[in-house]
Specification:
- The chain is an alpha+beta fold and 415 residues long.
- Helices cover 23% and strands 18% of the residues.
- It contains nine helices and 18 strands.
- Strands 7-15-16-17-18 form a five-stranded mixed beta sheet, with helices on one face. A five-stranded mixed beta sheet has the order 10-11-13-14-12.
């Protein structure tokens, strides 16, 4: 889905093209070059800004070598490069104290989750707490652990599902979710394991999910399930009191996930906006933290988080954002949806337009309550201060007119 750019590799006389890296006929020569350069740094030749250093990783289990971006360097790559990732300050990742999220040099990241995955002892249902300190030099960093919603945002961000460029047209739908989520989870480390060992993902054939279930029973792991909710079967005015289990599409190999008590009540309160959108027909993604009942084959939902997405799986906060997202795709623009993780940062924009020569934030204003107007004015002041002397910024004030014909034009693409 993302572009493979030429690589400058130590020991190679010329830059290694996409064909040289990917065609089966070149596989043996490419592996030999990577093996000889193992331990040295390569350079990506995409159109991004920065050093774009790459490390050469040896996958012992697969007996092959692969390229991986260096830690905290994803933002140096072009937005359509396969090594690209958003800079921390452009998302809510900057809310975590030092040690909660740590990037490695093998395209991996370690995270500290707010809930334990493995039950360590009979009377101990959590990993030992580590008091990660605040840094007074970084006052915005207040979160000492990553929530379940933060983990969902991490999966979406690291898999590139919050990013769009025109070459993705016709190549993104629900069928790619299983592969993308599993590949991404292999490089997320938490609680002394990689996330793929406990991740249940969308599937039409459930063999992998059943392997995860068997492993969890053997090692007393809790599980994390991710998927798109089935379309709501009731009416918009119907309540969710009688929803017995979490209904995921393409759920082969995933057990029934029973909703009960406080976890579901908390979710209905925290994600009321997302649930209302789901009831109105919006595509909605769920992530659930599961625990096997004692001496039973049934799993209870300990926690659930929800995220509204477009048909192309781009996260959305409202129907108005959905109109802008559709317009951006129709006009063949490059853009990304920054995710908040666990941040309360009100300066994160609704979208970044990524085909200009500088950063260009986009905002959609759609309410007129007193609290919202105060927040809106604060955002306007921030953008005027930070971007007025650069390329500027874009907004759509849809409070009084939400018709798509009222959406202001965008500056023409320059990259």
């Amino acid at each position: 889905m993302f572009e493979t750019y030429s690589i400058q590799l130590p020991g190679a006389k010329y830059p290694c093209s996409k064909d040289y890296q990917t065609l089966p006929a070149n596989a043996e020569k490419w592996q030999r070059l990577l093996k000889n350069a193992h331990g040295k740094s390569a350079t990506c030749l995409c159109l991004g800004n920065g050093q774009k250093a790459l490390n050469i990783r040896h996958l012992k289990a697969l007996k092959r070598y692969v390229l991986a971006r260096s830690a905290n360097s994803g933002h140096e790559h072009a937005t359509d490069c396969r090594f690209f990732s958003e800079a921390e300050y452009r998302t809510g990742l900057g809310s975590y104290v030092e040690g909660v999220v740590q990037e490695g040099n093998e395209d991996d990241v370690s995270v500290r989750l707010s809930q334990a995955i493995q039950l360590r002892k009979k009377n101990d249902d959590a990993d030992p707490k580590v008091d990660l300190p605040f840094d007074s030099r970084k006052p915005g960093r207040t979160q000492r652990a990553m929530s379940l919603l933060g983990l969902l945002h991490l999966l979406w961000t690291r898999s590139g599902l919050n990013t769009w460029f025109p070459k993705m047209e016709g190549k993104r739908d629900d069928s790619i979710l299983q592969w993308l989520l599993e590949q991404t989870a292999e490089n997320i480390k938490t609680h002394r394991m990689t996330l793929d060992r406990v991740l249940l993902s969308p599937a039409k054939h459930g063999s992998r999910n059943r392997e995860v279930l068997d492993r969890a029973k053997t090692h007393q792991y809790r599980l994390i399930a991710v998927g798109v909710l089935q379309p709501f079967s009731g009416g918009v005015d119907d309540t969710l009191d009688d929803l017995q289990s979490l209904p995921l599409m393409n759920s082969a190999g995933i057990p029934s996930m029973w909703l009960k008590g406080k976890p579901w009540a908390d979710a209905r309160l925290s994600f009321a906006r997302e649930l209302n959108a789901w009831k109105s027909g919006a595509k909605t993604v769920a992530i659930a933290f599961l625990s096997l009942r004692d001496k039973s084959r049934y799993y209870d939902v300990l926690e659930v988080a929800l995220m509204r997405v477009s048909e192309m799986l781009i996260p959305l906060d409202s129907g108005l954002e959905g109109k802008v997202e559709a317009m951006l795709r129709e006009q063949k623009r490059k853009f990304s949806k920054p995710l908040r993780f666990d941040a309360d940062d009100k300066t994160i924009p609704d979208f970044w337009l990524n085909d200009l020569d500088d950063e260009f934030p986009m905002e959609v204003f759609g309410m007129n309550t007193t609290e919202y107007v105060l927040r809106k004015n604060a955002k306007i002041s921030h953008y005027q201060t930070e971007y007025a002397q650069r390329l500027g910024w874009w907004y759509w004030d849809a409070c009084n007119n939400s018709d798509v014909t009222s959406i202001p034009p965008l500056p023409p693409a320059t990259r």
